[in-house]
């Protein structure tokens, strides 16, 4: 594990995510989630701009149509977005892991029937399925929410986690089945090892690196689904809706990034910095997760997860500098060996 923390790609991704989370919690603790409002901008007593104000010194991400500082909204919503994605991914792997091990050891003969059933899930749009399941929970009715924000977040995390659990079970089951057929496992079985011991001593250690990769992939997939739900006006923690003759557009309660996208996507042409800022934050977070996956795989296996060619480590470079063994070297070795 020490090699992982010395891997620069892993460190870059980890420090980015950790830095954003720490900044988000610190900002909320210090300012009590206060958002600066700049509706008009004056310079030398003259009015130079009005909301929405484009990015400039002092307002690095500009303001929205109401004059609210987008940078503050991004910082406040970062902890909800990132922690929700991490929670969904962790819950998916935690639920699927024991079932996958059982599928790859105890129920290997029934695995093909389960895989045939799970294949249909690859063609079901998860965003549409999540929309119909979460709309009654997240969309505010006319009489107001009957649940707390914490309850709505937990329900959304649990539903998003369950959507892809069967697919992960199938993936872990297939990998476990392949390891179960390896020579060292066959030898352990011939010596009397039970399936439970094989899972603990052989299958789980062999899958440890792949489980981290699966976890990272699930984090990125969750961020993508959250952004899609934001475009469909379903925001993490609930969508605040007003009613009447001239209702306001739906808004996010928690300022999480998918809500900022859905709330501001109509400004893509007139004020593009408003929706593009949370979109770029999603992209930067997914890039950080991808860097962590790449760095972890390089540190633990010496190979690249995204590149096909092998990584030229320092040891391999030294080996490449050594000369090739010739026929004369072999003859000399034979003479000196007797």
From TrEMBL:
Chain segments annotated as coiled-coil in the UniProt record: none
Keyword DNA repair: no
Keywords: Membrane, Transmembrane, Transmembrane helix, Transport
Domain ABC transmembrane type-1: 78-298
Transmembrane domains' residue ranges: 9-30, 70-101, 113-133, 153-172, 211-236, 273-293
Subcellular location: Cell membrane; Membrane
Topology of the protein relative to the lipid bilayer: Multi-pass membrane protein
InterPro entries assigned to the protein according to its UniProt record, in alphabetical order: MetI-like (IPR000515), MetI-like_sf (IPR035906)
Top-level taxon in the UniProt lineage: Bacteria
Keyword Cytoplasm listed: no
Annotated PROSITE patterns: ABC_TM1
Family, per entry: Belongs to the binding-protein-dependent transport system permease family.
Name of the featured protein: Peptide/nickel transport system permease protein
Organism: Rossellomorea pakistanensis
